[in-house]
Structure formats: structure tokens, C-alpha cells
Amino acid sequence: MNFENILISKKSAIATVTINRPSKLNALNKATIKELHNALKDLDDEESIRVIILTGSGKKAFVAGADIAEFANYSAKEGVKLSSSGHKQLFSFIEKMKTPVIAAVNGYALGGGLELAMACHFRVASHNSRMGLPEVSLGVIPGYGGTQRLPQLIGKGRAMEMILGGGMIDAAKALEFGLVNHVVEQEHLMNLTVKIATEICQNSPKAIAYAIKAINAGFNHNENGYEAEIEAFGKCFGTSDFKEGTTAFLEKRKPNF
After folding, report:
1. By the 8 A CB rule, do 49 and 14 touch?
2. CA-CA distance, 123 to 105, in Å (whole number)?
3. pLDDT tens readout for residues 42-84
4. One of 35, 135, 176, 185 is an active-site residue; which one?
5. Within the chain, where are the H helices?
6. CB atoms within 10 A of CB 29
7. What is the distance between the alpha carbons of residues 175 and 195, in angstroms, rounded to a whole number?
8. pLDDT tens digits, residue range 134-145?
9. How far apart are CA 114 and CA 177, in angstroms?
10. Is 115 one of the catalytic residues?
């Protein structure tokens, strides 16, 4: 499949998806959201891919926000459709993927860009990254999950301050808040992210998929996270990965998942 706004590379069990709109600081428009959905869906279905890294092209921005020109004249009804479609196609979709998606945040992650990073399973940032949800300065609010995921990650009070103030925080503050897991010099960003991804690749993909599902259940008001864990735990026993993992342990060798 050919894409206009994203690049895909694969090495061993790791796929890297790069949002490639440098002239727009990789801003998200509807076409890019659709391409990301299609690419990520295909990669999630590809058994040989164990981890996906999502990043932005260039050194300035991961994703500097949504493409405002695309929706500046939307009506209230169109706004609802825009948000709903984005959740379904990309942001909630990533969160529920069975393949771990790591955001390698290389610069500005603002508005929809930060929401995209937060939809990923966790985040690694370069030292020059700046993050924020400035939507209220445009007379609107975050519409791609920002009002829900940011409080889950950093707490209600800090999220309120960031969203209502509309300002940016630097990478050091993002690390302090728990918004990102690691901060590193920009030239080492991909190396560290690939190292983490490689470690994940050594583990059972089936168990990882169940773990993601169980963790997400704890943040879903319609689910009992503990019950979801019990169910997922039990299902692991019926997988070939469980048989291989336990057999390898007893035979004192590394498992071959």
C-alpha cells in the first residue's frame, strides 16, 4: 500500500511508522489519520511484527497538532463527527491494538499530536520535546481523548492546569509528571526506543496482547479490571506461548516465541 503522508520501515520484528509532513510540522489531517489507521491495522495483523514505533519526520516535531485549516469552519454537528471519527479510526484504535505501540516523541507534541502520543502504550521523548494541549486558546477543547488520557497519566490537578492554561511543558517536566517514561538526547532517541522495543520482542506476543487488554480494562468504567485480568490470565494457559515459555523455563533455556 502506498502512502502520501507516512513512511514505514521494518527491521527484524520492529516496524517504524513516521508521520511525514515536515512542511506542516507533521500536523494531523483527515488523510493522515486514515493512512495511519490503515498502516497500523496491517502491522497489527502481521505476525512477524512484535512492536511498532511511531514518530515524526525531522527534528522539530513529533506532531505539532491538528491541521486547523481543515476544520476552522466546521459546524457543531461536523465537530462531533470529526472527533468521533478520529477516536474510532486512530486514537482508541491504537490504545486497543494487540501490538505494543511506542511513541518516540522528537520535538513538539501539541494538541492532537500529544493526544496521539498518549494513545500509544507508552512514550519516550527527546530532550527538546515540548508538550501541551492548547485547544482552549482556539475556543475548543481536546477532542481526541486528551481530557481523558492526560488525567489518567498525570493526575486530575495537573491535567486541569495543562488543559485550562493551554501552555506547554518541557521534556523534563513531562518525565517528572509521568507523561513520558524516558528522556534522552535527540540523537539517541531512536536507539533507546529500539532497545526497549527489542526487549519487548523477546517476550510472548500472546501474553503481551492479553496484558494490554487487561491493563486497559482497569481504565474502562464499563469493565472490572480485576475480572478482565483473571479472564486474560486463564486464556494464557491455552496458548502455545505458555507451553513454550514454561517448557523453556524448566529446561533452563530461552523461549522461542
Report:
1. yes
2. 7
3. 999 999 999 999 999 999 999 999 888 888 899 999 999 999 9
4. 135
5. 30-45, 76-86, 92-96, 112-119, 146-154, 156-165, 171-177, 189-201, 205-217, 225-236, 240-250
6. 18
7. 19
8. 999 999 999 999
9. 14
10. yes
Residue 231 falls in the annotated catalytic set? no
pLDDT above 90 for 92: yes
12 Cβ contact partners less than 8 Å away, ≥ 6 residues apart: 198, 201
Give the amino acid at 80.
Answer: V
Supply 251's cell numbers: 529446561
What sign does the dihedral 69-121-163-185 (CA atoms) show?
Answer: negative
Catalytic-role residue among 115, 185, 227, 231? 115
Rounded CA-CA distance 175/170 in Å is: 9
Q: Which of 96, 99, 98, 111 is nearest to 61 (CA)?
A: 111
Q: What's the pTM value of the predicted model, to 2 decimals?
A: 0.96
The CA distance from 45 to 41, in Å, is: 6
142, 111 Cβ separation under 8 angstroms: yes
